[in-house]
């Protein structure tokens, strides 16, 4: 479930460190998780409103 943390060369010639790669992966996974919760909450409230 965790990123392997591979050093990645960037377009400008710098190198993204393994730790930086893991932080970016953590941020993306957190974002996707929060989007999933938000969409689920919207669907839930929409279904509840349709039942009334």
Architecture overview:
- With 52 residues, the protein is mostly helical.
- The chain has one domain (8-51).
- Helix content is 65%, strand content 8%.
- The protein has one helix spanning 18-51, and strands at 8-9, 15-16.
- The model has no long low-confidence stretch (mean pLDDT 90).
| Helix content class | 55-70%
The overall pLDDT average reads 90
The coarse silhouette is rod-shaped
Number of helices: 1
Q: What is the H/E order?
A: EEH
- How is the quaternary structure best described? single chain
Compute the CA-based radius of gyration. 18 Å
Give the tally of β-strands.
Answer: 2
Q: Report the sheet with the most strands, covering strand number, pairing sense and barrel closure.
A: 2 strands, antiparallel
List the domain count as a whole number.
Answer: 1
Arrangement of strands in the largest sheet: 1-2
Outline the low-pLDDT stretches.
none
- The fraction of residues assigned to DSSP E strands is 5-15%
Structural class: mainly alpha
Distance between the termini: 40 Å
